[in-house]
Specification:
Layout (H helix, E strand, L loop, with lengths): L2 E4 L2 E4 L6 H7 L23 E4 L6 E2 L10 E3 L3 H15 L4 H6 L4 H8 L14 E2 L5 E4 L8 H10 L4 E4 L6 E4 L15 H5 L5 E3 L8 E6 L8 E7 L2 E7 L19 H5 L14 E3 L10 E3 L2 H19 L4 E4 L6 H15 L4 E2 L7 H11 L16 E5 L3 H4 L1 H12 L3 E5 L12 E3 L6 H14 L5 H7 E2 L1 H8 L4 H8 L3 H13 L3 E5 L1 H4 L4 H15 L9 E3 L6 H6 L6 E2 L3 E2 H12 L11 H9 L5 E5 L3 H4 L3 H8 L4 E6 L4 H6 L2 E4 L8 E4 L5 E4 L12 H11 L11 H11 L8 H6 L28 E2 L18 E6 L16 H4 L5 E3 L1 H6 L7 E6 L3 E8 L7 E5 L27 E7 L1
Parallel strand pairs: 1-5, 16-17, 16-26, 18-19, 18-22, 19-20, 21-31, 22-23, 26-27, 27-28, 32-36, 33-35
Antiparallel strand pairs: 1-2, 3-4, 3-5, 6-7, 7-10, 8-9, 11-12, 12-13, 14-15, 14-28, 24-25, 29-30, 32-37, 33-36, 34-35, 34-37
The structure holds ligand MGD (2 copies) and molybdenum atom (MO).
Length: 898
């Protein structure tokens, strides 16, 4: 522990700090301008200089490490003069009017402190750009601290900014193109966030907020920690929680970074078409244009309760179903499933995890005992090799994508398995552009190579893995040379990937919907788990099998029990039913619950009458719209609880309950790596909208059940969750206020479990390799349907588009597109923007073409965000064999230019 003398007083610090770090620890920071904790220090601004005994010249404190016995002077007259001179040089070209108009920039505060007035000299060169919807650029205010260039390189990895020119003409401008947008900017806003002088600024948040509320992002499952700036009950800006707030343990997954959606796409919250009063549909039938009538909560709730009682009396409790929301809190979802089970008396409860990562949960639970990611995001920096399979993190989980990109720049290896050359494909050591639908063959071929070339971990297999010899026999049929052609990749590449994965320890797998949304989705995840078992990549930091979960709380929504076959905490009714009954003081229904897809089947068969859809636009987002329509059209009662009249409500809704948004309520979300994080109300709910849990309680009471539905707060609900879910018992609100904890966390002293399966699997000491034969999907190409279409997402739009579609993100990516290879486009004389009719065996849609070299000939990629396009009209009814997730990822189609 070095002891150093600062301005005459002695202090002891831990080794490894810079002088600036040390000074900040004792609240004696010297002025600094080019420093940002998220960046490697460069010592460029020369403001943080200090005198060190024995050194002839002052040294910059941000780049000089402390050492024992150092004697430091921080504020001598000489140093202060030096600072003033350096500041004057930086201010030479700075426009004085901006200095006066915007006093809050860090640079301006320093100018005031040192009584320097900017001179406003003319610049030889400067870059300005006002074309971006969010980011403003006025480089006449640049002070050359390089923070924008560095943060774009070192944190986001986008390399948008560069230094141009020499001498007095030196200036910062995009490295490529004439504008930010042409320069491949992804609008993460990091450069704006770090800029100390106002040269880069948020176009919208010029006012200062009255209050900043710490909360969790509303979009994807990464769970970024952010602060919502509000004024007069509206949002004026969002910023990441300071990188250092949570300390070096990195409580927040985003470390002071956000993506375009989290930082900028919040305006949906206050659009004119947000529905903030309960409504009843006046005319009965989905075939007519709906007439809605705004009503009081009393009327809406009474009507709904009466209908539900009537339907239950006539057709039984199992003719009713509830869908929890991956966008709502754990507390909301816990009550939704409790309502289904206790108030209605059915296990018919599900959520949209069904369509994305229920296959992952099922595979992980079956093989390893816990249906969730095995490791944490903080392992990204500890791995030697990433295996990314069927996920596109730089667009869909951008903070994780950026962290992976940086880890690879710092030397980690990268294997990408994706039909498209996704952005991270450009950084990959090996990209296996598998033909959509052929994961099983490919992953088996990797396993076969590992076995054949003896790349496995014999100790791990010896101590923890069963059925190795049966597996080696089975897997021989999948040697790379046998399956390469069908997979569309070379045997040599498959072998190279197997060697790289097996030989780089630890190796960490992330996977996405390119694995799960298939006929063999669950089995695809099992095939990945086989690879981790063979190579001993489980139970260690930097390893594991990690689904990149979808929405902000999809992990939580299923985990709270919005799943027909499991209760809160993923406990089966058989295992835990009795203890729930004790706490709930109510019996749990014994009938087998229907999952979402089975509810549709039952509706088509006229055995299902009512569905309460909380925050889930099923008509838009379920595969094969025709079938969804047939099912929903048969229902007597469709309750939609949402912020907007989404497509489900517009077409089929009979009752509309307006929900409070993520910015307007308290609670918790569970992110992709098993952290439970707080959501805090920053605004009063709009109009008559109410938190989802409040609505559930009201309806329960109208149905005659008050006990167990009379919570006063989200926290009170969470405390019941902790009582029924032993592995979550330690996660009290008080604890998660200051700690970022991963479950299992069984008591309030427990540190949480960032890495699962360290010494044993959750369910057993050992587990078996699974022998998974490949089964071809019926969505095969033929002369009528010669293309394989896969569907997915884009950075700027989110799922059903109800939120991002109501923000300026639309200017960045206005529409869904059909991405096509240059070769096919040329053959068919298709140009960018041409309207293309896509016809499958199930329906047709029209989308504008986008020619993309990332797509292979014979394959296509389309996004599904725009309700006007309704892409799912063409997807099939094929489902995962084990858990029914729709096969969104393969559809045979033909295309024609209109
Ligand atoms: N910007 C943005 N972010 C989002 C969302 C959003 O809509 N927009 N949605 C959120 C949700 S709900 C989810 S579930 C996640 C999903 O995140 P991801 O899992 O990353 O989602 P997708 O883009 O649907 O699909 C991932 C990749 O699978 C590839 N793929 C298709 N077929 C195959 C195949 O047969 N094999 C392999 N190996 N790969 C294949 C596709 O080319 C695509 O690049 O994203 C979340 N984050
Ligand atoms: N073709 C194709 N289709 C797909 C996919 C694909 O890859 N290809 N992916 C599938 C996947 S993985 C998913 S997860 C689904 C996603 O599809 P959805 O779950 O339908 O889409 P989301 O946009 O996430 O929004 C759900 C709804 O929640 C509402 N909402 C937001 N916050 C709240 C809240 O706090 N309370 C309430 N009550 N409502 C709220 C939103 O307004 C929106 O209507 O799409 C699936 N559909
Ligand atoms: Mo999802």
């Amino acid at each position: 522990m070095p002891c150093i003398n600062i301005d005459g007083e002695n202090y002891t610090f831990e080794a490894g700090l810079t002088i600036l770090d040390a000074l900040r620890r004792i609240d004696r920071a010297v002025p600094h301008l080019c420093h940002d904790d998220r960046l490697q220090p460069i010592g460029a601004c020369r403001l943080c200089v200090v005198e060190i005994a024995g050194e002839t010249r002052p040294l910059s404190s941000c780049t000089t490490p402390i050492s024992d016995g150092m004697q430091i002077t921080t504020r001598s007259p000489h140093l202060e003069n030096l600072r003033k001179t350096n500041l004057s040089l930086l201010a030479e070209y700075y426009p004085p009017e901006v200095f006066h108009a915007e006093p809050d920039h860090a640079f301006h505060r320093l100018l005031r402190e040192y009584a320097v007035v900017p001179a406003g000299a003319d610049r030889a060169e400067k870059f300005c750009d006002s074309t971006h919807p969010y980011l403003g650029v006025a480089m006449d205010r640049c002070v050359h601290c390089q923070r924008c260039v560095r943060i774009c390189d070192e944190v986001q990895g986008q390399f948008v900014w560069a230094n141009w020119g020499r001498g007095a003409a030196t200036h910062i401008a995009p490295a490529r193109g004439d504008s930010l947008i042409e320069g491949d900017c992804v609008a993460c806003g990091a450069c704006v966030d770090t800029c100390p002088s106002g040269a880069l600024f948020d176009k919208r948040s010029t006012q200062t907020a009255q209050q900043w509320t710490h909360s969790t992002c509303a979009y994807c499952g990464v769970g970024c920690q952010l602060e919502i700036g509000t004024r007069d009950n509206s949002i004026i800006g969002i910023r990441p929680v300071d990188a250092l707030v949570d300390g070096p343990g990195d409580a927040s997954v985003n470390r002071g970074h956000l993506c375009v959606k989290g930082r900028y796409a919040y305006e949906f919250n206050s659009t004119d078409d947000r529905i903030t009063t309960p409504m009843l549909r006046e005319n009965g039938n989905h075939l007519e244009k709906p007439r809605w009538r705004a009503v009081s909560w009393d009327e809406a709730l009474d009507f709904t309760a009466k209908k539900l009682i009537d339907i239950r009396a006539r057709r039984g409790a199992d003719s009713i179903g509830v869908l929890g929301s991956a966008r709502a809190t754990n507390e909301d979802n816990y009550l939704a499933q409790k309502f289904a089970r206790v108030v209605i008396g059915t296990n018919n409860v599900d959520c949209c995890a069904r369509v994305c990562h229920t296959p992952s949960a099922k595979a992980l639970k079956t093989m390893l005992g816990t249906g969730a990611a095995t490791n944490q995001f903080d392992d990204i920096e500890q791995t030697s090799c990433f295996l990314l399979c069927g996920c596109n993190p730089t667009e869909n989980h951008p903070i994780v994508g950026a962290r992976i990109k940086q880890a690879v720049r710092n030397g980690a290896k990268l294997i990408v398995i994706d039909p498209r050359r996704i952005e991270l494909g450009e950084y990959a050591d090996i990209h296996l552009a598998v033909r959509p639908g052929h994961n099983i063959q490919l992953l088996n071929a990797i396993a076969a190579t590992i076995v054949e070339e003896k790349l496995f971990d014999p100790d791990f297999i010896d101590t923890r893995v069963d059925e190795f010899s049966a597996f080696t026999q089975f897997i021989d049929d999948y040697r790379p040379e046998k399956v390469a052609d069908e997979c569309g990749v070379s045997a040599a590449d498959i072998r190279a990937a197997a060697r790289l994965y097996a030989n780089s320890k630890p190796a960490m797998c992330f996977h996405g919907l390119g694995v799960t949304e298939h006929l063999q989705g669950t089995e695809g995840v099992m095939a990945l788990i086989n690879l981790a078992l063979l190579t001993g990549n489980l139970g260690k930091a930097g390893s594991g099998i990690n689904p990149l979960r979808g929405q902000n709380n999809v992990q939580g929504s299923a985990h709270m029990g919005c799943d027909p076959s499991s209760l809160t905490g993923s406990q089966t009714i058989k295992e835990a039913g009795a203890s729930f009954e004790k706490i709930w003081q109510a019996p749990i229904p014994q009938t087998h619950g229907l999952d979402l897809l089975s509810m549709l089947d039952a509706a088509v068969a006229e055995k299902f009458s009512a569905l309460w859809v909380i925050g889930y636009d099923i008509y838009h987002s379920l595969a094969n719209t025709e079938y969804t329509e047939a099912a929903l059209g048969n229902l007597e009662l469709v309750i939609v609880q949402d912020l907007f009249l989404n497509e489900t409500a517009r077409r089929f809704g009979t009752v509309f309950f307006p929900a409070a948004s993520v910015f307007e309520k308290d609670g918790t979300f569970m992110n992709s790596d098993r952290r439970v994080q707080r959501v805090r109300a920053a605004l009063i709910p709009a109009g008559d909208s109410r938190p989802d849990w409040w609505i559930t309680q009201q309806l329960a009471q109208r149905l005659g059940v008050r006990a167990g539905f009379d919570f006063e707060s989200a926290e009170a609900i969470w405390n019941e969750v902790r009582a029924v879910w032993p592995a979550g018992a330690g996660l009290s609100y008080t604890r998660i206020e200051n700690e970022s904890l991963h479950w299992p966390c069984p008591d309030e002293k427990h540190p949480g479990t960032p890495v699962l399966h360290r010494d044993r699997f959750q369910h057993a000491e050992r587990t078996a390799l699974q022998r998974i034969p490949y089964i071809a999907t019926s969505e095969a190409v033929d002369t009528d349907h010669p293309f394989l279409l896969t569907t997915g997402r884009t950075l700027y739009a989110f799922n059903a588009g109800t939120m991002t579609g109501r923000t300026p993100n639309l200017a960045l990516r206005p529409n869904d597109t059909l991405d096509i290879s240059p070769q096919d486009a040329e053959k068919m004389q298709i140009h960018d923007g041409d309207d293309i009719r896509i016809s499958s065996r199930h329906g047709e849609v029209v989308l504008p073409a986008r020619i993309r070299a990332q797509i292979k000939p014979g394959e296509l990629f389309a996004t599904f965000h725009n309700p006007a396009m309704l892409l799912n009209q063409i997807t099939s009814r094929v489902r995962d064999r084990l858990v029914s997730a729709p096969e969104y990822k393969v559809t045979a189609v033909r295309i024609e230019r209109l």
